């Protein structure tokens, strides 16, 4: 699968990226960007890379990613009715914060379910299977900040 992704013959789903990031010990942002130089001081919105999950329409736009910066900051748009799940392993080497910017997000963290609205933020407890779900009829836009443990 990694070979097919690198050759551009396959576009991975968010779940596949989550499993790969867990196996490689990288955040999804680092896996997608793989930049090693220092980030530009100024980066315009249209210059930021966007990745779209082919199965859900979930879109990730990188703000900044490690290893060039000490934290990963990612803007995400989750379409209405979409759900994206990640295995616990993708959270085992980082600390995560979710900040909802627009819309509403249902976030499952292990057995706990959190209903988040615009302005709410949640700091994850640790490694657990997680799922992001947009149960509304409009896009949910949120920011994920990941820092090494």
Proportion of strand residues? 35-45%
Q: Kindly state the mean pLDDT as a whole number?
A: 83
What would you call the structural class? alpha+beta
How helical, in percent, are the residues?
A: 10-25%
Put the structure in a nutshell:
The protein has helices at 2-7, 14-24, 28-33, and strands at 50-52, 59-64, 72-78, 83-86, 94-102, 104-109, 112-117, 121-123, 130-133, 140-148.
What's the layout of helices and strands?
Elements: H1 2-7, H2 14-24, H3 28-33, E1 50-52, E2 59-64, E3 72-78, E4 83-86, E5 94-102, E6 104-109, E7 112-117, E8 121-123, E9 130-133, E10 140-148
Antiparallel strand pairs: 1-2, 2-3, 3-10, 4-9, 5-8, 5-10, 6-7, 6-9
Question: Any descriptors?
Answer:
single chain; 149 residues; Jelly Rolls; six-stranded antiparallel β-sheet
């Amino acid at each position: 699968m990694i070979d097919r992704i690198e050759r551009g013959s396959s576009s991975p789903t968010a779940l596949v990226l989550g499993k790969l990031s867990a196996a490689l010990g990288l955040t999804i942002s680092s896996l997608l960007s793989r930049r090693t130089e220092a980030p530009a001081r100024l980066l315009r919105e249209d210059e930021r890379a966007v990745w779209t999950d082919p199965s859900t329409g979930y879109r990730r736009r990188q703000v900044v990613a490690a290893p060039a910066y000490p934290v990963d900051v990612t803007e995400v748009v989750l379409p209405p009715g979409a759900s994206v799940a990640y295995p616990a392993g993708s959270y085992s080497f980082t600390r995560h914060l979710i900040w909802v910017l627009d819309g509403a997000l249902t976030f499952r963290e292990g057995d706990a379910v959190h209903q988040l609205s615009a302005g709410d933020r949640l700091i994850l407890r640790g490694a657990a299977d997680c799922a992001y779900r947009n149960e509304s009829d409009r896009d949910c836009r949120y920011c994920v900040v990941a820092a090494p443990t």
